[in-house]
Write a structure and sequence with these properties.
5-stranded antiparallel β-sheet; 28% helix; 3 helices; 5 strands; alpha+beta; globular
């Protein structure tokens, strides 16, 4: 039973979320189950000239993107991409 519970807990770490507010310091998301999630914008993300404009486009298109709910971070890859560490 512990294995099943642990798998469920891990699967809930990455959630689908939509941006509802955006500043140069904080991104506010709403998850599919209605929870609000705040993700701080890091210094390196603020220095990236494409990062905030890209998020603004995602926000206005009302796209759902994967967010790490536990760590309050965006993922470096999307739903369809395979992370570099997982490639054989």
């Amino acid at each position: 039973m512990a294995v099943i519970e642990n798998t469920i807990q891990k699967s809930n770490i990455i959630v689908s979320a939509k941006i509802i507010a955006l500043t140069n310091k904080m991104i506010t998301f709403i998850t599919q189950d209605g929870q609000h999630l705040l993700v701080p914008v890091t210094e390196s993300e603020r220095e990236d000239v494409l990062f905030l404009p890209s998020l603004k486009d995602i926000w206005h298109a009302e796209l759902w993107i994967p967010v790490n709910q536990k760590l309050h971070q965006l993922l470096q890859y999307d739903w369809m991409a395979v992370p570099e560490t997982a490639k054989a």
